[in-house]
């Protein structure tokens, strides 16, 4: 009974009247058309159902929009925690152990570690540039208050140049080091994309050991110190030793240039070292797992309000059993004892011989769930009822999916409770399968598996503030339960924090992608794709057709430090790779370097007597107008005589322009057409000699 989508909608009364009128056409025996007749009742129900269908037939629900966008390859991006690097100050003597979920607060924003971290009493003491055997001190790069750029490899980097980082100590062998460098980026470089890109340079990072300088495994996100980012390195297995080449015999890490094809010499303004990672999230319920042990320990400060639940796996592959503290000596059962040492470390002891039960030495043998008080009051989520798409409302939204899990309580064959920790996204035949809508705080069960009737409880539960965690650099954070003498600050901003995309946001992204051409067809396509070439600094691009219809010429001007930059082979190859992937099959492309044409000017200008420095103002206006290199004017744009004439006459100091002439110095690059200057398609103009007589 579904109507045509284009048919005009009718009311329930109109549809029922039409149905009653058609009864005699189908049955002469049906003569009772009163509401008391069962047939009329059925007809009324069917008409009501049709009216409901009609009200929804034109409606495209959010679920339908999501499925349609998914068919085109567009799914909602999941929410993410902001990530940030912290620097620890005040560490002296012994190392400091930070457990997983160690909290650091900035106002009402909480940041946490994801794993246990060891902080060592190591500090950067100096930075040095070494070129041609000569060492220059650039240690001011370590000072947060100073923002003086330093060319760490000089203005003309060459293979063999080095950057030394000196430290008063280094961590033990095999430890990971994280450094962050801040670059003075003045050129608007396009994003690098892939990590470890070495288009312009190849750096070798080394640590000084008893075997001399030993190469380290490094992940460099700076592209050879060209963009701000972090450098992560793994210390070699040989212990570090003080380096005699470093000032005062300090420990040394160095970066050696193996290849230097820089388009712009690297300039740094800040170096921070011995950093560690934190994420913007607040854990309200933490699940700690211990492998192949019969005891487990946690710092007292992680236990919060003291709401702790303990589970043990007694056999490999089995579900967990819940254990309770032992209060009656000599009693058998699933019990544990706790002890706390003088340093605030709480340990849970399990004794199979004493109590008759205990964890097996298997993977994930012990799980300890720690609840904050706010979560303890609402950690029970309800029962698994078994019907499709059962929805369970969670205590709050904006969850961290990676930290989330539920505890499913069932009964074994003897009626005793068993427990399983279930994360979202499991889709086995007998598994409890559910999807987590983290932004809404909703859990939707897709398949109950063997868990029908199970009761669900919160296991791991953490919330995030999304983009609010992308804070600026230079803040001081407070560590919970950490000695006040230690200080923590973020040398770089928080990045990556975002909320889950709404269907409307996904739709907007889809529509924007439709308008964004992937295949280069028009001149504008070639210019846009050329400007977006990854890793490059590009100031201007001009694409135009040659006499041959299948040949497109693209003129490119790099945005480097040179007054009149050329186009290196590295740039040509990168731009060609970018365009070859997107051009039409039969189209040929030619990448052209910029050419520069000086324009000479002479004339006579009458000025007002009360103005000083009139000549300087006139010449400045002329140079600015003719400068196509630094202005928004693109390749090949005509310099019109009437515009420069009006530009000069509009100056406050000018009475009138008596005479004015423009001449291209090189007629093969730019031509004089009537009084205008017409450059070649790959030509940029600039002011040559200016001879102005004052009247």
List the helices and strands and how they pair.
Layout: H1 12-26, H2 38-57, H3 62-71, E1 83-89, E2 96-98, E3 103-106, E4 109-112, E5 117-119, E6 124-131, E7 134-137, E8 150-151, E9 162-167, E10 176-183, E11 201-209, E12 212-215, E13 217-220, E14 229-234, E15 251-260, E16 267-272, E17 275-280, E18 282-290, E19 295-299, E20 307-313, E21 320-325, E22 335-340, E23 345-349, H4 352-355, E24 366-371, H5 373-376, E25 380-383, E26 390-393, E27 406-411, E28 417-422, E29 433-437, E30 442-447, E31 455-458, E32 461-463, E33 476-479, E34 487-489, H6 503-515, H7 523-531, E35 538-545, E36 551-558, H8 569-580, E37 588-592, E38 595-607, H9 614-626, H10 641-649, E39 654-664, E40 670-673, E41 676-679, E42 683-694
Parallel strand pairs: 21-22, 36-37, 38-42
Antiparallel strand pairs: 1-17, 1-34, 2-5, 3-4, 3-33, 4-17, 6-7, 6-9, 8-16, 9-15, 10-14, 10-16, 11-12, 11-15, 13-14, 18-24, 18-32, 19-23, 20-21, 20-24, 22-23, 25-31, 26-30, 27-28, 27-31, 29-30, 33-34, 35-36, 38-39, 40-41
Helix pairs in contact: 1-2, 3-6
Helix content: 10-25%
* CATH fold name of the largest domain: Jelly Rolls
The rounded distance between the terminal residues' Cα atoms is 92 Å
Q: What is the average of the pLDDT values? A: 90
Strand order of the largest sheet: 19-23-22-21-20-24-18-32
Structural class: alpha+beta
**Tally of helical runs:** 10
* Percent of residues in beta strands: 35-45%
Shape call: flat
Give unreliable regions as ranges. 1-7
Q: What Rg is obtained from the alpha carbons, in whole angstroms?
A: 36 Å
Q: In total, how many beta strands?
A: 42
CATH classification class of the largest domain: Mainly Beta
Architecture per CATH nomenclature, i.e. the level-2 architecture of the largest domain: Sandwich
How many separate domains?
Answer: 6
Largest sheet: 8 strands, mixed
């Amino acid at each position: 009974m579904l109507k045509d989508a284009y048919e005009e909608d009718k009311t329930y009364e109109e549809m029922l009247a039409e149905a009653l009128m058609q009864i005699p056409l189908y049955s002469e025996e049906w003569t009772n058309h009163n509401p008391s007749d069962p047939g009329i009742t059925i007809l009324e129900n069917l008409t009501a159902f049709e009216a409901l269908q009609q009200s929804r037939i034109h409606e495209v629900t959010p679920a339908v929009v999501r499925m349609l966008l998914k068919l085109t390859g567009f799914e909602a991006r999941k929410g993410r925690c902001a990530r940030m690097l912290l620097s620890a100050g005040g560490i002296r003597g012994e190392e400091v152990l930070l457990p997983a979920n160690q909290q650091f607060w900035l106002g009402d924003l909480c940041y946490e570690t994801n794993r246990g971290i060891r902080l060592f009493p190591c500090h950067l003491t100096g930075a040095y540039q070494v070129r041609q055997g000569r060492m220059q001190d650039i240690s001011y790069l370590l000072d947060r208050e100073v923002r003086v750029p330093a060319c760490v490899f000089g203005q003309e980097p060459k293979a063999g140049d080095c950057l030394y980082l000196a430290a008063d100590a280094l961590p033990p062998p095999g430890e990971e080091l994280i450094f962050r460098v801040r670059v003075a980026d003045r050129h608007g470089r396009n994003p690098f994309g892939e990590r470890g890109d070495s288009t312009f340079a190849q750096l070798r990072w080394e640590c000084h050991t008893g075997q001399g300088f030993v190469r380290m495994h490094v992940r460099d996100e700076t592209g050879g110190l060209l963009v701000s980012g972090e450098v992560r390195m793994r210390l070699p297995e040989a212990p570090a030793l003080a380096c005699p080449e470093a000032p005062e015999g300090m420990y040394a890490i160095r970066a050696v240039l193996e290849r230097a094809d820089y388009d712009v010499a690297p300039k740094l303004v800040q170096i921070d070292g011995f950093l560690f990672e934190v994420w913007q999230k607040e854990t309200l319920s933490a699940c700690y797992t211990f492998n192949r042990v019969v005891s487990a320990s946690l710092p007292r400060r992680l236990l919060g309000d003291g709401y702790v639940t303990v589970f043990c796996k007694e056999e490999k592959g089995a579900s967990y059993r819940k254990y309770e503290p032992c209060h009656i000596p000599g009693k058998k059962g699933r019990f544990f004892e706790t002890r706390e040492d003088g340093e605030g470390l709480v340990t849970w002891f399990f004794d199979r011989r004493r109590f008759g039960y205990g964890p097996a030495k298997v993977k994930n043998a012990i799980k300890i769930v720690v609840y904050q008080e706010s979560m303890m009051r609402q950690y029970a989520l309800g029962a698994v009822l078994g019907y499709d798409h059962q929805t369970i409302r969670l205590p709050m939204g904006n969850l961290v999916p990676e930290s989330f899990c539920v505890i499913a309580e069932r009964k074994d064959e003897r009626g005793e409770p068993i427990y399983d920790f279930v994360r979202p996204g499991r889709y086995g035949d007998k598994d409890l399968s559910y999807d987590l809508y983290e932004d809404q705080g909703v859990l939707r069960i897709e398949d109950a598996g063997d868990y029908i009737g199970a009761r669900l409880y919160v296991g791991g539960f953490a919330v995030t503030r999304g983009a609010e965690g992308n804070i600026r650099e230079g803040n001081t954070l407070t560590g919970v339960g950490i000695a006040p003498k230690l200080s923590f600050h973020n040398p770089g901003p928080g990045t990556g924090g975002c909320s889950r995309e709404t269907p409307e946001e996904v739709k907007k992204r889809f529509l924007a992608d439709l308008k964004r051409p992937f295949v280069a067809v028009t001149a504008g396509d070639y210019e846009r794709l050329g400007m977006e070439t990854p890793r490059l600094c590009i100031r201007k691009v001009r694409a135009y057709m040659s006499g041959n219809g299948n040949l497109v010429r693209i003129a490119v001007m790099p945005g480097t430090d040179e007054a009149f930059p050329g186009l290196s082979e590295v740039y040509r190859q990168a731009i060609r790779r970018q365009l070859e992937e997107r051009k039409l099959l039969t189209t040929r492309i030619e990448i052209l370097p910029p050419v520069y044409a000086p324009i000479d000017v002479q004339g006579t200008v009458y000025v007002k007597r009360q103005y000083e420095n009139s000549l300087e103002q006139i010449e400045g206006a002329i140079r600015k107008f003719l400068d196509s290199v630094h202005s928004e004017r693109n390749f090949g744009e005509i310099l019109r005589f009437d515009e420069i004439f009006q530009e000069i006459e509009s100056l406050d100091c000018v009475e009138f322009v008596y005479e004015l002439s423009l001449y291209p110095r090189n007629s093969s690059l730019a031509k004089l057409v009537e009084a205008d200057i017409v450059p070649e398609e790959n030509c940029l103009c600039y002011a040559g000699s200016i001879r102005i007589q004052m009247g």
